[in-house]
Specification:
112 residues, mainly alpha
Length: 112
């Protein structure tokens, strides 16, 4: 890994921490208490595991769950959030497919 890659990943971690702070402030009407230096290391692990874009999606999804939204809880459970979000999206696709098939069957039945 080059120094440029490390710098880009570090920049991405700080962007994701800003996203976390913005979502927290929107949900709880106050700024979170956050040590950005130490939080960056946890965010780098998240980026290594799921990538920057997926990490952003998980942060946004995280604020649609539960009531407490500590960064530490997110770090300990982002993998579970990832699985859950994937299952929700797959279920939505499956339901949309079933709905479309049902719509076609009803249309065929009406045309007979």
């Amino acid at each position: 890994m080059t120094a440029k890659d490390d710098k880009d990943k570090s920049r991405t971690a700080h962007i994701l921490l800003s996203t976390y702070e913005a979502e927290y402030k929107k949900r709880h009407k106050k700024k979170p208490i956050l040590n950005r230096y130490s939080a960056k290391w946890g965010m780098l692990d998240v980026i290594d595991s799921v990538g920057g874009e997926r990490a952003r999606e998980l942060i946004e999804y995280y604020f649609h769950t539960g009531s407490e939204h500590s960064i530490e809880f997110f770090y300990r459970n982002f993998d579970k959030l990832d699985v859950t979000l994937s299952q929700i999206r797959e279920d939505r696709r499956r339901r949309a497919k079933i709905l479309e098939e049902t719509r076609k069957m009803v249309e065929e039945a009406r045309n007979q």
